[in-house]
Amino acid sequence: MTEEKRTPTDSHAPDAASDTASAPAKAVAAKAPAAKPAKAATAAPEITRRGLFSWAAVAWVGFTAAIGGCMTAFGRFMFPNVLFEPPTSFKVGKPDDFPPGVVDERFKDANGVWIINNEGRLTALIAICTHLGCPPAWLEAQNKFKCPCHGSGYYKNGINFEGPTPRPLERAKISIDPDDGQILVDKAQKYLWEQGQWDDPSSFIAVS
Ligand code: FES
């Protein structure tokens, strides 16, 4: 048996070769971990910037909404809702336009009165039930006013005779305009039967 003699050089040759072969790998391995911290270092500020933009957007939307609400409130203050109601004083025509015995309904919807030529007097009867304020209807066939809400009934002259209402309909001031001879009605002034006001000369126009 012959023993092969190995010189120190021979015994270290493979190690040297392996060292030489692993040198590039070591270099790569040394480089690889170094890349990660670099990436992490750039990611952190990016998230922070996004968050900052998000909060800025939320704040801006909130600010805009608040300003919008203030402007709306200011606009409502400067230009409040206005109720346009028909004038309380108006003309309805000449006495000859209202024949005897007729309940004229032409002014009920627009002005809330019936013009009635009854028993030698022209009157302006206010179309509001004296029970709880519903608008009664004139029933020509039954010759009476009837309230649809609770059934109060009134004669042609406005006196109540049925239902829960405690008193007659009210009359408005009525007169002749001396300038043009037209009938002038003024709802701002009312005449109540129960207070004896229906004989007041301002509550009717005498007709033949
Ligand atoms: S409101 Fe007319 S009867 Fe009640």
Could you explain how this protein is built, in words?
The protein has helices at residues 8-78, 108-111, and strands at residues 89-93, 103-104, 113-118, 121-126, 137-139, 144-146, 153-154, 160-162, 171-176, 183-191, 205-206. With 208 residues, the chain is an alpha+beta fold. It has 2 domains: 8-84; 89-206, Rieske [2Fe-2S] iron-sulphur domain (Rieske Iron-sulfur Protein). Strands 1, 2, 3, 4, 9, 10 and 11 form a 7-stranded antiparallel sheet that branches. The protein is elongated and about 95 Å long. The N and C termini lie far apart (166 Å). The model is unreliable at 1-23 (pLDDT under 50). Residues 129, 131-134, 147, 149-152, 163-165 line the site of FE2/S2 (inorganic) cluster (FES).
Outline the fold blueprint:
Layout: H1 8-78, E1 89-93, E2 103-104, H2 108-111, E3 113-118, E4 121-126, E5 137-139, E6 144-146, E7 153-154, E8 160-162, E9 171-176, E10 183-191, E11 205-206
Antiparallel strand pairs: 1-10, 2-3, 3-4, 4-9, 4-11, 5-6, 6-7, 7-8, 9-10
FE2/S2 (inorganic) cluster is lined by residues 129, 131-134, 147, 149-152, 163-165.
